[in-house]
Amino acid sequence: MVVIQLLQQRPRFNETSLIPSKSPLRSRKCRSRINLLIAAQSLPSRTQRIMESIAVRGEVGGAGGAYSYSALKRLDQLWSSLCSAQTVLKKPQEVVSKIPALTIKGLRVGVVERNILKGREQEWNISRKELLELVEAGILLEDDIEHATDVKFNPNRCGFEGKGEIWVEDILNLGVSPSKIIEIMKKRFNSLGGVIFESCSLSSICIYDDAAVLHLADGNILASRLVIDAMGNFSPVVKQIRRGQKPDGVCLVVGCCARGFNDNSTSDVIFSSSSVKSNGDSKVQYFWEAFPAGSGPLDRTTYMFTYVDPQSRCPRLEDLLEDYWDLMPNYQEVSLDNLEILRVVYGIFPTYRDSPLPAAFDRVLQFGDASGIQSPVSFGGFGSLTRHLGRLSNGIYEAINGDFLDSYHLSLLNPYMPNLSASWLFQRAMSAKQQSNVSPDFINELLWVNFQSMQRLGDPVLRPFLQDVIQFGPLVKTLGLVMITKPQIIPSIFKQVGFPVLVNWFGHFAMLGYYTFLSTFIGPTIRPLVNSLPKKMKYQWKRNLEAWYYGAGLDYRQ
Fold first, then answer.
1. What is the pLDDT of residue 5?
2. How many Å apart are CA 433 and CA 142, to the nearest integer?
3. Nearest to residue 558, comparing CAs of 483, 464, 487?
4. What is the pLDDT averaged over residues 69-73?
């Protein structure tokens, strides 16, 4: 590190000095200058000092599971490689399948985990409604939810710089312990005959006509009818499928859990405390989330996140953390000196327009974040996973039972969903343009106008949006009200997102309306006939009906 920086900033010697070049005094001065420069360049950043002062324990795999400074630097290196868009074909190195719902259906399921299978310390923030979907899938009991919930809080704020605030109830208002939930699931999984292969890395997957064979790094071999790739955003299988494709957008997240917040009874679902800022050579629009933590009454987790188009000049996570330490105290009205930092959190969440990802191989299916099922404006797909878990577990069971394990039939489990594709406009609208001809305050203005309109239209419009579910009717009402109440903002929308993006979005918007029509009027007519169809056609039509229903966001329930 020091050598590279020295090469970038070479010491300059005074060419007009009267001291002879071979003078011992000149040599001592040169050495001292070099030593001073090395010392200056070697000073750790504030982020490094803070992170290295925290005792790190319990790091696990997955997003948000690592807290150390060395892990941050590794992730920053990965982020730099994403920005450079180098095309590197890699074989998958691990397979992690965390779907205990399938064992309930009588299937033999094995989990291959590179690390020890356990949850992270940092809590998941989720609504009770979404957790109950795990109960419906047979994974948890309601008592399990109570046991795993470390903290509950209300109300929840949505606010934008100097414009106003909207308060809601029961949105992401539970702090759930991943370690407790995964321990509960692990015990139930084992009791149902599931097998967990911990500390096992995968070298390769070989696909045969009648099986998929997993070659582990330790030389062991596992044979399976179906491999479920649940390795998240950076799955090596997904890298191979996408062939090094640069993400269409990325959400960068940094934050910390700290002790010392006296006012700690409410949360922020989304808050913006400033307009577009500069970080190095890049412009960014920062947003915030904040939640009480279950580790103590004064403990609070604050996240700062931004949406970017991956380019070489994008800020590193460490750069964002440096801004975070400056901005967070003012945002939360605390002094950093009065806080005890418990852990620092950070993450990269790439998203692609062509999501969810269809199956590219026979007998291999992407699941969860690896499939791209999450909204492009969310970071982490736990909420989207809970919504789709019942659909996916039933579909996977039927695919295995009917031997529909070719890539075509597996792709029906990750179909095109127009409500997901329509969300891309929101991510683009919330991303700061590097060369912009709109006001730095435009993003806040646009969001506030939309949130005001949704609030006026009521909970059936506002609440699904806050939980990353886009529906045709609420979207039409919101856009219509915005155009009526704030028509002067429309030209700036075209400038911010660009005409080609709007044209592309309108196609998905039309398909959202079409899927809503199909699911509302055609689906009820077809559904009673499906069970009388041959097995393969029955499987296909059930997947089509689900694609209409979920693709229109009609699975959302208050």
1. 17
2. 45
3. 464
4. 93
Residue 311 has pLDDT above 80, yes or no: yes
- Whole-angstrom distance, CA of residue 226 vs CA of residue 212: 7
Q: Which helix (H) or strand (E) holds 164?
A: strand 164-168
Q: Is the pLDDT of residue 272 over 90?
A: yes
- In what helix (H) or strand (E) does residue 493 lie, and over which residues does it extend? helix 490-497
Contact 263, 281 (CB under 8 A): no
> Radius of gyration of the chain from Cα atoms?
26
pTM check: above 0.85: yes
**d(C-alpha 318, C-alpha 371), whole Å:** 28
Question: How many residues belong to the chain?
Answer: 558
Contact 238, 357 (CB under 8 A): yes
Residue 432: which of 423, 421, 422, 443 has the closest Cα?
Answer: 443
Q: How far apart are CA 111 and CA 183, in angstroms?
A: 14
Predicted confidence at residue 25, as pLDDT, reads 36
> Of the candidates 378, 392, 383, 277, which has an alpha carbon nearest to the alpha carbon of residue 326?
277
Question: Is the per-residue pLDDT at 88 higher than 50?
Answer: no
AA letter at 274? S
Q: Is 216 helix (H, G, I), strand (E, B) or coil?
A: strand
Reading the block at residue 416, the tokens are 């095109």
Q: Which two tokens stand for residue 329?
A: 């105290």
Short-list 553, 238, 520, 179, CA closest to 384: 553
Q: Mean pLDDT over residues 159-180, rounded?
A: 95
Report whether pLDDT(492) > 50: yes
Phi and psi, residue 306, nearest 5°: -150, 155
Torsion region of 498: left, alpha or beta (phi above 0 gives left; psi -120 to 50 gives alpha): left
Place of tokens 């390769």: 204
- Contacts of residue 415, Cβ cutoff 8 Å, sequence gap at least 6: 356, 543, 546, 547, 551
DSSP state of 497: H
Express the helix, strand and coil content of the chain in percent, nearest 5 each: 45, 20, 35
Q: How far apart are the first and last CA of the chain?
A: 53
| CA dist., res. 184 & res. 178, Å (int) | 10
Q: Rounded mean pLDDT of 512-522?
A: 98
Residue 212 has pLDDT above 90, yes or no: yes
pLDDT at 10 over 70: no
- Who contacts 73 (Cβ-Cβ below 8 Å, separation ≥6)? 318
